[in-house]
Amino acid sequence: MLFIVIPVFNRLKYTRDCLLSLRQQTRQDFRVVVVDDGSTDGTDQMLAREFGEVEVVTGDGNLFWTAGVNLGIRRALALGASRIMTLNNDLLVLPDFVDRMLYWADQHPTAVLGALELDVATGQPVYGGERLNWRTNTRHDLLAELPASQRHGLHPVTYLPGRGLLIPLVVIEKIGLFDEKRLPHYLADFDYTSVARRHGFPVYCNYDARLSTYPEESGQEQTRRFRSLRGYYQHLFGIRGGGNLRNFTHFSLKNCPPQYLPYYLLNGYARRLVGYFMH
């Protein structure tokens, strides 16, 4: 049984719309676990009133993404999950999303799968996975490189985000849960899928499964929208900072091949120190 784990903190409207899109799935052989980390906007009442079928786990407001997802996964495993999918609440899944994910999961039962992301406003693809050259710290954007005729099926990638990430039970049994101690928010998803790949599990972006995102609502975009010294500090050192130097260091030490590590670290630090002002 597939269990979909969604960590939430406030943003009630996004959570409702996301859950409604799951109700519209052509396949309904899944269950949903929402981890409500101390929301103060009535999310708990809305879930109880409108989504009685959803399993709700509550936190105290200090879980952040990684610990929230882990709490939901533990609950799903206790309920008998054989597959886990992590999903963010600020997205919508197209009606055949679950069907297309489970189809390919059945074909590749040990693979970790992500999805093609569309801009909710335009319907145009915005993210289709990437391949990283560790030696040069350069990323190859699959969307930019794949012709439209090849934008279907599975494509191998270096890592995947946690938005619509399907994880077989065998992967969890082998490598455990997300690294909430060292990566409490950002990079935990890229780290987890990188570790899975290093342990021999295929990691693919599934171009047949599509979800719609709100690119401007990401934490990184919120931080960069109004640039300031305080924002710069949060970018580099805050738990939700997209350029968090500590998180990047942990990710690099865990995943970068040792022979490429010095350059990868220096190049990555430089990009984070100046990147806040470049976008």
UniProtKB/TrEMBL annotation:
InterPro entries: Glyco_trans_2-like, Nucleotide-diphossugar_trans. Gene3D superfamilies: Spore Coat Polysaccharide Biosynthesis Protein SpsA, Chain A (3.90.550.10). The keyword Transport does not apply. Residues 4-114 form the Glycosyltransferase 2-like domain. Keywords: Glycosyltransferase, Transferase. One of its GO terms (molecular function) is glycosyltransferase activity. Belongs to the glycosyltransferase 2 family. PANTHER family: GALACTOFURANOSYLTRANSFERASE GLFT2, RHAMNOSYLTRANSFERASE WBBL. This is Glycosyltransferase, GT2 family. It comes from Hymenobacter daecheongensis DSM 21074. The lineage of its organism: Bacteria, Pseudomonadati, Bacteroidota, Cytophagia, Cytophagales.
